[in-house]
Design brief:
Blueprint lengths: L1 H8 L4 E4 L15 E5 L13 E4 L18 E5 L1 H9 L20 E2 L8 E5 L6 H23 L16
Antiparallel strand pairs: 1-2, 2-3, 3-4, 4-6, 5-6
Length: 167
């Protein structure tokens, strides 16, 4: 887990949020990690993380069986095209194949957010760590492009001197 967090920290404009007891985050988030494209170092107010690490079962999300020791899951927004390439399924119309979401070291649809183009890997190991790192890099770059489209190039705003006088 630390290797993945460190890898993401090295991306230009990356913000890694690690909630804990001192930051005011709810206890449910403690121990998890959230990855954002945030060149200003602040959590974006209008964007979700492009990747997360979940260290425990959550309400409505228990299929990965994360409560036993040394189990955790990395979750990555990969979009529809990469999702199809990785899973062989369309995120909006899954083919009904059963998935063992508790299986470790396998790229698979996210058990809750797969329909939105998210994949996950429980406790990445030899087979998937390099793929996870590559997918996180691509997700970070995608988030940067989305941010640039939303905010556009920075340029000074025209000055507003109020109503014109004496014309």
């Amino acid at each position: 887990m630390e290797r993945i967090i460190q890898h993401v920290r090295e991306f230009d404009g990356a913000l890694v949020v690690l909630p804990g007891p001192d930051g005011g985050a709810p206890p449910l988030a403690w121990g998890d990690a959230f990855f954002y494209h945030a060149p200003d170092g602040r959590v974006p107010s209008n964007a979700q993380p492009y990747g997360t690490i979940t260290t425990k079962d959550l309400p409505g999300d228990t299929a990965s069986d994360l409560d036993p020791p040394d189990r955790w899951r990395v979750n990555i927004h990969v979009g529809r095209t990469r999702y199809r390439e990785l899973t062989g399924e369309d995120p909006h119309t899954p083919d009904g194949r059963p998935h063992d979401h508790a299986a470790a070291d396998r790229v698979m649809p996210h058990p809750v957010y797969g329909a939105y183009g998210w994949v996950c890997v429980v406790t990445p190991g030899d087979r998937t760590t390099d793929t996870v790192l590559r997918l996180l890099r691509a997700a970070h770059d995608d988030a940067g492009r989305r941010s640039a489209r939303r905010h556009g190039p920075t340029s000074p705003r025209p000055r507003d001197d109020g109503p014109a006088r004496g014309r």
